[in-house]
Design brief:
Elements: E1 2-6, E2 19-24, E3 35-39, E4 47-50, H1 51-57, E5 63-64, E6 68-74, E7 77-84, E8 89-94, H2 96-126, H3 137-152, E9 167-174, H4 177-180, E10 194-199, E11 204-209, E12 216-223, E13 228-238, E14 242-245, E15 251-259, E16 263-268, E17 273-280
Helix pairs in contact: 2-3
């Protein structure tokens, strides 16, 4: 049995636009007539395929059935032919499209792996630094470099529109001396965990110290763009009990430079770096 494919093009197949449509010229009988192959760009290709040759000369690179034909036409290029019995049409597609999809998927998985590795490297770097209080200039440079790499692959381009921002975050590392208070004796510094909570729907934020002072401050957020806010503090709470209105000078800016479900990196208007980890996505900041 011989299957004929007719049509000749001056341009080789790799220059075609991906899909060839085969129109059956007559019904298949015991000796099927030639098939006309027309590319989407109007090119034609003429050749003759012998079924016996497909099984003998391309045993590892071809597959044939009543509905499909797959063969390798040149190194690293596979062509697939599929048929539709109702319309008597045959379609041929360059499997390089599949390789492109596979390549894209591999690239995506590689980026995800890179992000995971960078996060692990970041957590390892900041773990012994007591939230940054014990960081040397070299430590600060290393942490900043890893943070920059994560910021470069940040997928959340508009964090102020993302629900990932909502909730209570634990401060793992900062360069802010007003928070670290490294000039004070250690027993007069915040020794317990420090949290920051943000709710994007109400544009409210709250900073919370724990042991030994339990101080808190709340603030209104004013978006400057999709990732930066002006911070206007409104009330301070001393020891969690005494509430004091913030003076008009209590303000700043905060830019969210990296965000995912468990890690946030932010930078202040004074150049300070903040690295936080999600602990409670359901937390609500008081209005």
């Amino acid at each position: 049995m011989t299957c004929g494919v007719t049509g000749l093009d001056k341009t080789p197949y790799p220059q075609t636009e991906g899909i060839l449509t085969f129109i059956k010229e007559a019904n298949f009988t015991t000796s099927p007539p030639p098939l006309m192959a027309t590319t989407s760009s109007g090119f034609k290709l003429r050749t003759t395929l012998h079924l016996a040759e497909l099984f003998t000369s391309h045993p590892l690179q071809s597959n044939l059935s009543l509905n499909s034909l797959s063969l390798t036409r040149e190194p690293n290029t596979q062509i697939e032919i599929s048929s539709n019995s109702k319309s008597n049409e045959y379609a041929i597609s360059d499997c390089r499209k599949w390789r492109t999809r596979v390549s894209f998927l591999q690239g995506f998985l590689s980026k995800e792996k890179d992000v995971k590795s960078l996060k692990e490297e970041l957590f390892e770097a900041i773990a012994p630094l007591d939230r940054g209080a014990e960081a040397s200039p070299g430590d600060q440079e290393r942490v900043n470099e890893i943070a920059r790499k994560l910021e470069a692959v940040n997928k959340v381009k508009e964090p102020l529109k993302s629900n990932l921002l909502n909730g209570k975050w634990e401060l793992l590392y900062t360069t802010s001396q007003s928070i670290l208070q490294v000039k004070r004796p250690k027993w007069l510094r915040p020794n317990g965990k420090i949290y920051q909570a943000i709710n994007v729907d109400t544009l409210r934020a709250q900073n919370m110290e724990t042991w030994p002072f339990f101080n808190q401050v709340t603030a209104n957020l004013v978006p400057l763009n999709a990732r930066k806010v002006a911070v206007k503090f409104d009330f301070f709470r001393i020891a969690g009990l005494i509430s004091i209105a913030s003076p008009g000078s209590g303000r700043g800016q905060l830019e969210i430079t990296y965000l995912d479900q468990d890690l946030r990196i932010s930078r202040g208007d004074r150049g300070n770096l903040f690295i936080l980890q999600m602990v409670d996505p359901s937390y609500r900041v008081p209005l």
